[in-house]
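Run log // design_07
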């Protein structure tokens, strides 16, 4: 019995080490394109959202570059884990500035999720009776 226990224990430890999940901070690093913005519920259209198209390049140090229609913005990003009761989610804050024009764009996404082997990301904004989902693809 002892001869079987030690190899099984070692196998279990190795599997746990090799199967560690990539954090949201690691998954977001890279270049993402906005492919769609969906609106759910009644009320306003997504026209007022600062990020409806363009490309984001997220760096591991919390900085980012956002490009839209040939204009480049520089800024920061931050992911925070939020918990309400038994529910937890990851919130994403983005703030960028075009230094040439001093235009500042910012957004707070209430919840983000990755899929497709971390090649797709959905970021949701909840505003009263309606919500918006921005779809990103690497």
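design_07 sequence
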């Amino acid at each position: 019995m002892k001869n079987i226990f030690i190899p099984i224990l070692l196998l279990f430890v190795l599997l746990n080490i090799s199967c560690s999940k990539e954090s949201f901070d690691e998954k977001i690093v890279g270049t993402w394109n906005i492919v769609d913005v969906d609106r759910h519920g009644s009320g306003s259209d997504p026209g007022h959202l600062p990020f409806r198209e363009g490309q984001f390049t997220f760096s591991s140090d919390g900085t980012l570059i956002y490009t839209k229609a040939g204009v480049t913005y520089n800024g920061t990003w931050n992911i925070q884990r939020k918990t309400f009761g038994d529910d937890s989610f990851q919130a994403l804050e983005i703030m960028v500035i075009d230094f040439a024009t001093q235009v500042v764009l910012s957004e707070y996404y209430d919840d983000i999720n990755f899929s497709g082997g971390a090649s797709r990301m959905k970021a949701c904004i909840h505003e009263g009776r309606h919500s918006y989902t921005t779809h990103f693809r690497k």
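The first strand starts at residue 30 and ends at 41.
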